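step 3/5: co-fold with FE2/S2 (inorganic) cluster
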Amino acid sequence: MPTVSMTVNGQTVSAEVDGRTLLVEFIREHLALTGTHVGCDTSQCGACVVHVNGEAAKSCTMLAVQANGASVTTIEGLSEGDDLHPMQAAFKDNHGLQCGFCTPGMIMSAVDLAKRNPNPTEAEIRKGLEGNICRCTGYHNIVKAVAQGAAGMRG
Amino acid sequence: MQSFNYAKPASLADAAAALAKAEDGTLLAGGQTLLPTMKARLAAPSDLVDLAGIAELKGISVSGGTVTIGAMTRHADVAGSAEVKGAIPALAALAGGIGDQAVRNRGTIGGSVANNDPAADYPAAVLGLGATVRTNSRSIAADDFFTGLFDTALNAGEIVTAVSFPVPQKAAYVKFPNPASRYAMVGVFVAKTASGVRVAVTGAGNGGVFRVPAYEAALAANFSPSAIADGVISAADMNSDLHADAEYRAHLVAVMARRAVAAAG
Amino acid sequence: MNDSVAGIGARVLRREDFRFIKGRGKYVDDMVLPRQTYAVIVRSPHAHATVNSIDSSAAAAMPGVVRVLTSKDFEAFGGLPCGWLVNNQNGDPMVEPKHPILAEGKVRHVGDPVAVVIANTKAQARDAADAVVVDYSELPAVVNMRQALSNPPAAVHDEAPGNLCYDWALGDKETVDAAFAGAAHVTRLEFTNNRLSPNAMEPRCAIGDYDRSNGDHTLYTTSQNPHVIRLLMGAFVLSIPEHKLRVYAPDVGGGFGSKIYHYAEEAIVTVAAKVIGRPVKWTSDRTEAFLSDAHGRDHVTTAELALDADGKFLGLRCDTLANMGAYLSTFAPCVPTYLHATLLAGQYKTPLIYCNVKAVFTNTVPVDAYRGAGRPEATYLLERVIDKAAREMKIDPAEIRRRNFIQPDEFPYQTPVALVYDTGNYEATLSAALAASDYAGIAARKAEAKSRGKLRGIGLSCYIEACGIAPSAVVGSLGARAGLYEAATIRVNPTGSISVLTGSHSHGQGHETTFAQVVADQLGQPIENIDIVHGDTARIPFGMGTYGSRSIAVGGAAIVKAVDKIIAKGKKIAAHLMEASADDVVFENGQFKVAGTDKQIDFGSVALTAYVPHNFPLEELEPGLEETAFYDPANFTFPAGSYVCEVEVDPETGVVEVCSMHASDDFGNIINPMIVEGQVHGGLVQGIGQALLEQAVYDDNGQLLTASYNDYTMPRADDMPSFTVDHQITACTHNPLGVKGCGEAGAIGSPPAVINAIVDALSELGVEHVEMPATPRKVWRAIQAAKK
Ligand SMILES: Cc1cc2nc3c(=O)[nH]c(=O)nc-3n(C[C@H](O)[C@H](O)[C@H](O)COP(=O)(O)OP(=O)(O)OC[C@H]3O[C@@H](n4cnc5c(N)ncnc54)[C@H](O)[C@@H]3O)c2cc1C
Ligand code: FES
Ligand code: FES
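step 4/5: write tokens
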């Protein structure tokens, strides 16, 4: 079995895994970081989005071994303790979540989006979230949240 | 997903050797097609040879009227590249319209071209611009490269190393996405070059990406949407599925072609 | 009422959000029990086949495999029960075939469970599942409903040779026919209400655990109603008494109806955990969800509306074929009957209504309630046929509706289809919606769109729904096999903090916030001191769960009743402490006061006294401060509203863009407007999704063509506009909060508004109808057909 080592939320982790272990399985099952979710089998829903070396990636569509040596950030690593990242705060302030299942992936994608485009228009936000499906909110408040979160990230 | 051996060679030669040695080996690039396929148990290779460790496969260069993109260059890098935007903006825009951001952050041009999904976007650009696919053993002209659904001229074990695109005078790509998957239900790439006009269509044909000689001739004479105003192509060779029947696809090819010509300016 | 910021009517930010945005939600699949195993289910690849044999020997010998179970292992148990009996027109009961846990000798839909492989890891179970060899003989598949009845290729169940589950009717056909005979105008519309897959983003998951030392079973499951699952599975399937079965549904990632039902996998993991003596977890993947979660809608309907020369409705006549799928899911029979036909009066004074419903078995996934359940189908029927009538009679669509509205002074209003509407003001929501959407100004926008080569249209829909499902006596007389009240316990702890145990379940609705607002308001306590506990049969006395927009109307009312009991007892304790008569004690803003004096004592002191009863009327009162109430409402609630949609069609491609959608709703009183708006937004997108994007499609062989997001079109952010929403209020007359419920409205009201808008845009070409989902291909085809 291959050994993988990577930095997850700032901590170095290393484990022997079955080669077919997906990054999302490594995160959820080996590291017990269950904030990253799985909502589909075809890489479309975005519930599993994490950052790999600072960029959004679908952790269900990546092998753990492909992240060997990488720096991975999950929703749990976005802010510490009782703090909230500006994007997290914006989701709360704008009622950008209901059941919460899509939310971690949605927030991780939104942070990537705001990094690429610090002042996105509504249309750019909607387009930028096309890889994340939410069944609860109708997106309306998510779009508002991402606009506020991006503003918060601009500082 | 079934079990496999994993290797991450540091050179092309090692990758070719690893592949040759494997019982039923497959190259792994961005994994954005291969991994979902393996998860669905539609592919079960004995070995995965990961190309991510080979530095020479990455990067974009522009020289002498040619844009060369390394096989392991990600869609996001092409979409964001100032050089590509400057030389062939239609190509950067096409890359920026593949999948979603997370997919673009992993998926590569080499994987897309080698996979030749009949609904993929890159094949339209490769064929529409008359690009050259470079491999570890030869160079293959676009017109010879795409040979059918998920089929290419690549030999077993052959590795795409780069794709070289000649810079056109003008070009545009217009995509009508499948409403569910967002792959191209119809995508038309139109390019005007010194040597003529090329029109390549993806998503629509039942044999994969194809050129439309009638449009090319009409547009060579007059590069404007009106030149192909009533140019509906035959539905006979069009794909038909849940989302679009052949006749509708043929109609969309005409509409997207006109829109692409208009967008190319 | 208390006017503190956290009280009723305030936009309180959600208290549950912190854990979700930090990635600390606790969903079933996040749980790992010691020594847990993993189950993978072998499912039928065929729509209809006999199972000749199952050879699991190779699978059983594979690495990590603990056990392979087949239907033999479940012989001792019952089938999955159906919770609602519908009778035929002739009084005979519906055909109710057994729904076995694992297929017994025959599979009836693609995805029907056949065997279960349990292994130490999920990957091992998955590998071994491929090694289970099932020998099938394929049978002809029954897919199309009309064909299933008229020319059946096969019988899905031997008990129903013609595939008819029931033939039910409401209304008197002869009088309705007579009204049609005398009508100035009759409008007729045939249409399909498209089959949908609910697609909560969290796939279903269940973990069974068994403690041999005491015989206790625990089922962790993704459910909207854990007590109902305990009842159905414990009493009807596995014969486990309530005190030996705990059902716990922690954080649940959306339901929309699909997580109401008792599913085979819940029984499978419960049984399997006992058989192997280790916890067993099953997690659905998305394709499995498409093949096993109950689908929604799937009606084929003919509707006719009779009108007089002024556009007044004289009668409505409709025939519906309703797909039940291969087995009767928990609530399936009541959806096209009591949740559909009874809503066909809508907001109107149609005097005569007749509706015939034939429920049909097919070799497809069972169909049951999905957000709105029956009411979207009724609203679509009515609002489409009315719109068509308006067009045919050249009456403005808003005007024709106005001419037929039940007027505000006509409540309570007895409809011809069994319901009594308590209150409403339909003109108020219609005029608000028309004003907000600038209905009057559409001509200019159409002209402007035309200059860009686009066809613009506006469509409206006036919906009503019956929510807050209950009352038990009524639903019982209509065939429900359970009561539909709700229960709540208020536990005031010694230091004055409050635990609210509710039988409602939150899987996105925000009960932890709204219910706490209600209690904070009524008890005058800070919201921080109040916790809402839900989802666990071990902690909550009883409950019927969350569906049918019933949480606040029924569950909230139960909480208010329990609060009332707390206040009544508190008054007695306070009276004792203040040496006054309990009759003179009033409770205001968290203080017990002796009326007309300045004597008062705060809530916390009363709570403490209840638990430290040193100075306490022990001869009359028990110590402690905890009360339970059950609430069974006197009637349904009737939320209603008007939705206006504006679209632009690209005639060259058939692409429809939703430019705007305005929702004007009357939900009665509102506890938290922010949450209510969120519910509407979510419902709107599901409704627009039904109208434009979504459809579960089977081919002629019964293969589901849309079993992944590659083919089932989920609405995404860039498919949708932002919405505008407003509320008009007529308070419900028969529950203590005056609330009506808001969970389903968006999905009920929006589909006909979208289709009416598309038809409006295309009417100049002569298009009269476009079927849902109005995909680009269908719209383009409709335009081509009209051109010919
Ligand atoms: C949700 C989603 C949406 C998508 N949407 C689109 C879309 O809209 N348009 C579109 O075009 N694509 C789309 N894709 C596909 C995406 O572009 C993939 O990235 C691409 O098709 C394959 O590239 P890859 O690098 O991921 O290759 P992999 O998945 O790693 O490999 C694909 C195949 O190519 C072979 N291969 C890879 N690299 C080489 C090489 N250098 N030489 C020879 N063979 C090689 C592999 O062995 C494999 O058989 C989507 C994918 C997903 C998951
Ligand atoms: S789980 Fe759906 S995209 Fe990864
Ligand atoms: S909040 Fe439930 S899926 Fe987005």
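step 5/5: annotate
Chain C touches chain A through 58 residues (CB under 8 Å).
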